Amino acid sequence: MKRLAILILMMTLLPAWSGDAPSGKDLYLDNCVDCHGDDAEGDDQASPDIRGATRTQLDRALPGFDQMPEFEFTEAEIVAVQGYLEALE
Ligand code: HEC
Predict the structure, then answer these.
(1) Which of 1, 19, 63, 68 lies at a C-alpha separation of 20 to 30 Å from 35?
(2) Which fold has domain 22-88?
């Protein structure tokens, strides 16, 4: 019975880790790279260096403020992008 429970648990959790998980790198390259640059170091103009951006910064930025455009990212996408930016630091 315990094994079955573990199996069911794994079947529900696995998709989140494998194919369905959004790639932070792809999200970044598709949506952010034009302004924040190849390595997220900023563009020497309006767009800041966002390597290692915190969740608080992302929650403030992604709904759009000032020249930062609005993005409707899911929770999983925000987590993925943040992970990517963290790895760049
Ligand atoms: C059209 C250009 C543009 C795009 C595309 C863009 N940004 Fe920005 N971003 C900006 C600008 C400009 C600012 C600075 C806004 C300000 O301070 O007035 C900013 C600010 C930020 C900040 C806040 C940094 C801080 O110091 O708090 C974060 C985080 C951020 N962007 C993340 C992202 C992510 C993640 C993406 C891709 C999903 C993205 N941006 C796409 C232009 C852009």
Answers:
(1) 19
(2) Cytochrome Bc1 Complex; Chain D, domain 2 (1.10.760)
Q: Please report the atom of ligand 1 found closest to the CA of residue 67.
A: 12
The reported pTM is 0.83
| Residues having CB within 6 Å of any atom of ligand 1 | 31-32, 34-36, 46-48, 50, 53, 57-58, 61, 65-69, 71, 81
Between CA 13 and CA 69 the distance in angstroms is 32
**Quick check: helix, strand or coil at residue 44?**
coil
Instruction: Supply the pLDDT for residue 21.
Output: 83
